[in-house]
Amino acid sequence: MAGAPVKIEFEGSQGHKLAAGLEMPAQEPRAFALFAHCFTCSKDILAARRIANALCGRGIAVLRFDFTGLGGSEGEFANTSFASNVEDLVAAADYLRAEHEAPQILIGHSLGGAAVLAAAAKIPEARAVATIGAPADVEHVLHNFACEIAEIERTGEAKVTLAGRQFTIKKQFIDAARSAELTDAIASLKKALIVFHAPRDEVVGIENAAAIFKAAKHPKSFVSLDDADHLLSSRQDADYVAAVLASWAGRYIADAADRQADPSLPPGLARISETGAGKFQQVMHTASHSLIADEPVSYGGLDSGPSPYDLLSFALGACTSMTLRMYAGHKKIDLGRISVDVTHEKIHAKDCADCGEGRQGRVDRFERVITIDPGPLKSDSELDAKLLEIADKCPVHRTLEASSAIVTRLAEK
Length: 413
Hints:
This protein is of the alpha/beta class and 413 residues long. The protein is built from twelve helices and 15 strands. The longest helix is centred in the C-terminal third of the chain and has 24 residues, at 308-331.
């Protein structure tokens, strides 16, 4: 069973201390989740507490926090906007990454759902995103104080009453809500998505769920919450969301054992194993590191990690940059920050003018574009030519160009 949430603080997007609670399961967490509450709510709203507690009981640690100016967090709500909420979410993920591990699951309730959709691209470790009663556009939240909008636009701000409490809303909040665009963020999510929504939600209509679902690409799921209200005030509804969410997310997250290195492996040995999640997902271990590999959704995978050819491009790019840095250090050349873009394609040898002679059939063509930032004050063609020469001497480059010997055998039974 999970214990009481551990009270913590971290710095938010505007430099204020944000109040948070971290619920940890009794055993090693399978994964960490980040929960974003509804508009003008707090981390302690019943739905957030119940869902976090239920997820914790299923081995998933949950961080829920108060956005700037709400609940126990510092700052003025009047000075916040949807954009600052998104940055608060990123700050919360940064805290988890530094103190525990980055969240693999992002959960957002109501406007918090819109916030996690917008923040997901800025939290690369996240693999699964869940929205609960979320609007498809941020401007939807303005209907909560529609009568005061004219005054806010005329005077710059106004006091509005929301859920029995008074808040100051400034024109900047309205402008930011109207300009926020979620469709592109949803379409380019590149993470598994599940949409929870009640058909009779009177605060955020079911048409919002349809718009989010339509904009998203697979893998995506929709779960109807039947007679639930917008705030999931029924424990049964909150527990149902948590149970479905934990089961669904299990297909996409890497468990703790998969995310840890395997110190028992000897140096130089890499072990790659299926995780059982999806059709192709693999976990790759060395004695000190672990990574996830997968295939894109278009190939039948979950897109939960780089593909094998992505990893090959990573290896070539990393080796190139490291080799250039070693050369610059040896020659005491003051190079700026090195970055390498690598693309890979399979083409016919006859169509590849720069692939060398004697090649036949289809060949693998890697193209590197090396950027040094900031570059030299003036063009130095001699140095440029030398750097290209050194790049071609990177060990991975030589391995790819040479004919490698690959010996395969079955393990003894």
